[in-house]
Please model this.
Amino acid sequence: MGQDLPLLLSAALGKKVNRPPVWMMRQAGRYMKIYRDLRERYPSFRERSENPELSYEISMQPFHAFKPDGVILFSDILTPLPGMGINFEIIESKGPIIEDPIRNLNQIENLKELNPSESLSFVGQVLSSLKKDVNNEATVLGFVGAPWTLAAYVVEGKSSKNYSLIKSMAFKEPGLLHKLLDHFAKSIGEYLKYQIKSGAQVVQIFDSWAGQLSPEDYDIFAGPYQKKVVDIVKAEHPETPVILYISGSAGVIERMAKTGIDIISLDWTVDIEEACKRIPSGIGIQGNVDPGILFGNKESIKERIDNTFNKTKDRKYILNLGHGILPGTPEENAQTFFEHGKKLTY
Amino acid sequence: MGQDLPLLLSAALGKKVNRPPVWMMRQAGRYMKIYRDLRERYPSFRERSENPELSYEISMQPFHAFKPDGVILFSDILTPLPGMGINFEIIESKGPIIEDPIRNLNQIENLKELNPSESLSFVGQVLSSLKKDVNNEATVLGFVGAPWTLAAYVVEGKSSKNYSLIKSMAFKEPGLLHKLLDHFAKSIGEYLKYQIKSGAQVVQIFDSWAGQLSPEDYDIFAGPYQKKVVDIVKAEHPETPVILYISGSAGVIERMAKTGIDIISLDWTVDIEEACKRIPSGIGIQGNVDPGILFGNKESIKERIDNTFNKTKDRKYILNLGHGILPGTPEENAQTFFEHGKKLTY
Model:
């Protein structure tokens, strides 16, 4: 069963597999020396993520190093913004800066609908190259940011600690925010479809900042727009597995399960055994391993992987971290994570 | 029933009250103009929190402005550190800097046992003045940081994003970390007893960073040391209510309930109705209101308070935010929070 499909895709589709697939969020990046070397030559993040040769090369770095079961596009959740008329820059160690933060109706009404094949053709190019070259030895993953998280960026104008600007908008001018969220949902849905057509076999939606919402606000500003994105994708690609990740999601995992996604990617702040009970059995689970464990040693890493795996044996499970791998992680510890992960068996 | 006791203390003791008491975490601070003015004259945070006249004056600012049901000592969770031989400075907008971060056994073995009446007499002075002057029109609260959170500060050396240094110690040299946590638990227990003897009628333990631990690590590095602090306090003051707060606690609230505390202070990322089901009925609940709601308007603030209160009617409940009030919060919105909170009735 599923012998013709790569392991991660098979598992995500619910087919019987011999071991859980393994990949890492943010598996290409700063913790790899080869990436830091390339960054010296190409210091602009936007160039690295928007020049198709560079994005392709970086996407493949962890594949060459560790042979993970998933190869994810090297890109950023903000990459589609310029195609909607929102310009941004990423300043090393400071994060993204939105050129002209979105604060009023006029700005929202002037946003362009995203035409991915026009403004994001470099992404299509990278995904089709990855699909061809990875050649089903791994599964190619695409990804997007969810509407709430994109809205938080463009309203705040930068990485925020307190989200006071977008919350002010949410509580004072909810109609304005809903217009923005709706625009993003449609555009992001189109963008995911474009990624799938270009080669992505599994896609992940990051609503990184939805964990900053109370569950009552999640039901108004995050959940419905996650669902809208999923509905747009599933209407055309019902068979493509969709993963949803939220950082700080322990209070809303039941809600995540109701958005039409196939797999919930858990952070590490919830016991995966309890999460399995709270999430309907048809929905798969990914992640949950504290990325901080990779600052330990081989023994602690292996033990944590085993503990996590043992709690998920009767579930569809994809081994992953509970958050992106952290800068400063020793590469040999990432190696251990992949090596040990591949030794697991059902 | 409880007529002689202030409202918050009565409610915390489980006595029948006519309305939930209301106070705010970090209710004295940057959002108040009177505090910012004082800060101009006394720019050193350590001076403001360690000079008993200033600490007293600041503690009383919100009492004069809003008449909350609780008056909490103006201090910092790091304040006891110098009494253990760990020096620190707080740099405005950058947070605390530990002079000589704790990284090895020798440093841990050289830590002094805290003698609060010697090194923290200014805290005793402030609490006894507050107790006298507040005169049971409100309840006087003391507080401490829990061992894990203090350890995270002194090992990382500053506010951390990823906690890679303390996690490295936890996973590679757990014995070392346990020694440090044990030292803090004993000292912090003594410090709380000193606060109670000096005038604190209710005390709150902040394990602000325990939400960064997976539940499995929480059970090793956070929970047992919270419990140890509580045991030390309860041995001498079984009647003093103890509140426990953790930021990002949605995945561990059942565990918090097992530490011997009386009241769990919830952040806003969990539905309080679900939390009430997960927490044994004998344990009280505090908080849960998103501090971001105070960037909304009067109507949204009142509605949120009502929604929260309505979900807790059969529980011991203390109205509070789910986190400290945020810098930049309009003072009139804090006013609305207190005013509306005091209009609730059982």
About this structure: Residues 7-343 of chain B form a domain with the TIM Barrel fold (CATH 3.20.20.210). The radius of gyration of chain B is 19 Å. The interface with chain A takes residues 162-165, 167-168, 170-172, 211-217, 248, 250-252, 268-271, 274, 288, 290-293, 295-297, 300, 307, 322, 326-328 of chain B (CB under 8 Å).
